[in-house]
Specification:
Largest sheet: 6 strands, mixed
Bound molecules: adenosine-5'-triphosphate, magnesium ion
CATH topology of the largest domain: Rossmann fold
Structural class: alpha/beta
Shape: globular
Amino acid sequence: MTEAYDPLRDDRGNRDISITKIGNPPVLTPAENRETRPAPGAVRAFLTAEAMVGGYGRGANILNGCTVAAEKGQIAVIVGPNGAGKSTAMKAVFGMLELRQGTVTLDGEDITRLKPQERVARGMAFVPQTRNIFASLSVEENLEMGAFLRRDDISRTMEQVYTLFPILKEKRRQPAGELSGGQRQQVAVGRALMTEPKVLMLDEPTAGVSPIVMDELFDRIIEVARQGITILMVEQNARQALEIADMGYVLVQGANAYSGTGRELLADPMVRKSFLGG
Ligand SMILES: Nc1ncnc2c1ncn2[C@@H]1O[C@H](COP(=O)(O)OP(=O)(O)OP(=O)(O)O)[C@@H](O)[C@H]1O
Ligand SMILES: [Mg+2]
């Protein structure tokens, strides 16, 4: 393999399309949010990452009590400024970052100490922000790579991925690196779906794609959720993402600045002013 697959490195993507493209950077700090709804967690949802605290190596905490949760078939969206810790939260939920405090539970099981591959075996799939495909491999080989843990027949799942993303079937023999940005994201999502996950985690799946391609990808993500798969997704296109979100989380400095349904966040004047450009 020519490319090292190491999502822990170089994982600072996409600074171009950004909810932070507003005149003044948000001055909100977590302490100012006492009046907004507390994040869910009292009753554990299907996927619950509660009060996560952690950082890289021996470094300072990047996550300062972040909580995210989603039920089966729900779409949960994390938004927030660059550097807020969104990708770090995703890595923590997937087990790529050891938590100093907090818990992650899946379907009632405490998985906080499990390795990523053990979480995959329990039904989690993660599409990282960058380097999420093997560019030199064909589309179909990428999908096969997604299923490498499976011992059963994968052809049915591959057909399902091709039904969801017909262009990938057309281009299945082409090196994935030759595809457009939107199509490469389809490959990445398709590869994750090859594990037949219960939880699909996507870190900025629409990074760098046009608004039309973004809408299409969101429609496909809604379709996946309707099959009962839980989606936990980070998005820079905050407004559009919150429109399709059952649950939304605004992350600032590693903590929940706002939590609520997508609709509640879209209607919240402070969220609109600080994060949605008015
Ligand atoms: N591998 C790493 N090692 C050390 N520090 C890191 C690492 N990755 C990220 N950080 C730091 O953690 C903080 C949060 O970064 P993170 O990538 O989680 O933010 P983000 O909200 O995903 O930002 P973006 O919107 O740019 O994707 C930043 O200060 C960043 O420098
Ligand atoms: Mg990120």
